[in-house]
Each structure stands twice: as C-alpha cells, then as structure tokens.
Design goal:
- The chain is α+β, with helices and mostly antiparallel strands.
- It has two domains: about 5-85, no CATH class; about 110-265, Endonuclease Chain A (Endonuclease, Chain A, 2-Layer Sandwich), CATH 3.30.870.10.
- About 45% of the residues lie in helices and about 15% in strands.
- About 35% of the residues are buried.
Length: about 270
C-alpha cells in the first residue's frame, strides 16, 4: 500500500495538465497508438505533453504498468480535472492542437468518440468533408451494429471540382460508391447533400460548411473540425460541447426543416 507521500509523488506530474491532454494520451494507449515502449517522441505525437509527465509515464511503463492500466490512470486523472473544473457544466471547450499546461479543454477526437459510443437513438453529423472513414467512424459503425434502431444522418458537401464537366448523377454515383466502400460497418447512414453545390458559378452556388454532431436530442457538439484524421488529431481546431436539450432541439430542427422542404437531397444508394 503506497504511503501518502508516495501517492503524492506519483500524482504530482499529472498536476496542471489539462483533461484534454490526459484523455488524448489515454486514448493513445487504449487504441494501441501508444504501447509499453512509448517514448518522448511517440507521446509528443499524440499530445503536447509536459516534460515532467513524459518522465512519469515512461517510469511507470518501465516498472511494468500495462498500456491498458496506463489508460485507466490517465482517464482517472482527467476525470479529477473535470470534477475540479466543474466537469458537469453544460458547456465545455473542445480543442485540438497545441495547448498550454494550464488550459482546460477536451480533445476533439476523444469527444467525438465518446459521443458516438453513448448514442442510443439518433446521431446527426454535419461536415464539409469526410476522409479516412474507417478510422474516424469506426466507433459509430460499431454502435450502429449494437443498436439496430440507431438512426444516423450525415450532411456533407458533394459538388463539382474545378473543370469537372461530368453530369451531376455521375459525380453522385462515384461519391456514393466510394463512401460505401470506405464505411467501416455493414449498416450505412443516411447521407444528404445540398444540390446548390452543382449550380453554375454565380449567386445560386453554395458550399455545405456547417460542422456539428447531435446525439439523442440531448447534446450538441459544434466545431471547426471536419471528419478527417487531420482535423480530429492534428489540426488546430476549436469547438464547444453543449449539454442542453433546448439548444440541441433548435439546431436539429434546422436540419429537419431542410429535409422536409427538400432543400437538401438524399444521396442515392445511401
């Protein structure tokens, strides 16, 4: 049984480290991106980790702590930071990229994964672009298999690239085939796009650029991040997680209104 002094020595390097950094590291150990041989270099690829925490993590690993237990320890410390900073607050800052050790935020990829893994009834995703679907949407695809009645809608931009003279139907077919091939599960979401993206250059043309995630009519995540590996893990991105059903309902109604008014179209094949 460790003494109070020994316990304090272990927890000291974790002090003044944001919950976002701690959860990013925990996610790295849990997913296998970090292992028992984690180094300063590999830890730095996952998050901006203070030197004192790098030394402590490497010490614990060298003494036999498994990556799974390291993830649990880091999550526990992140929970403590959340509790200390009012983790039950209905509004939280979500951030990806460099941050100071004194900042308090949640990491974009961690928040998105937690939202997907908590969904039971509905998930609505709006984004400009999706890439690396297998990695980004794997938790959601697994949740869709677990809950057969879970309804998932994805709103995104599908348009004509510069000098692409193909017919709109051919572009849509190609996008649909690619999306299905790269989706990580057997069940597919409903995919919607804005037909104005195919209008000739001029006042009628538009780009779908809204980025958010709505889950079970209870929580909304509004973010600058697209659904790509870069945006979820590497870019500097800012967002806000809002646990407020009234706001979530308002935002969801905007999308539902566009569907009902046929201002957005369902992607054929999905």
């Amino acid at each position: 049984m460790p003494t109070a002094v020994e316990a304090a020595a272990v927890t000291a390097p974790f002090q003044k480290v944001s919950a976002g950094v701690l959860r990013s590291l925990a996610d790295g150990f849990r997913s296998g991106r970090l292992g028992a041989g984690a180094s300063k270099l590999t830890l730095g690829r996952v998050a901006d980790v203070p030197e004192s925490l790098v030394r402590e993590v490497m010490r614990l690993l060298s003494e036999g702590m498994t990556p799974a237990h390291m993830a649990l320890l880091l999550d526990a410390r992140a929970d403590a930071v959340d509790a200390h900073n009012g983790g039950a607050n209905p509004i939280e800052l979500v951030w990806t990229g460099p941050e100071t050790s004194a900042s308090y935020s949640r990491d974009t990829s961690v928040v998105v994964r937690e939202l997907f893994e908590s969904a039971q009834r509905t998930v609505l995703i709006s984004t400009f672009v999706v890439r690396q679907e297998k990695a980004v949407f794997a938790p959601l695809a697994a949740r869709m298999e677990m809950f057969p009645d879970l309804r998932v809608q994805v709103f995104l931009h599908i348009g004509r690239d510069w000098r692409d003279t193909r017919h709109e139907s051919e572009i849509l077919r190609e996008f649909s085939v690619g999306f299905r091939e790269n989706w990580p599960g057997k069940r597919f979401p409903e995919v919607y796009y804005d037909p104005r993206a195919f209008a000739p250059d001029g006042p009628d043309r538009a780009t779908w650029h809204a980025k958010c995630v709505l889950v079970d009519d209870d929580v909304a995540f509004v973010t600058s991040a697209n659904f790509t590996e870069w945006a979820q893990h590497r870019n500097v991105e800012a967002g806000v997680l809002i646990r407020e059903p009234h706001f979530t309902a308002q935002l969801k109604a905007q999308f539902e209104g566009l569907v009902q008014a046929r201002r957005v179209a369902r992607l054929p094949g999905l």
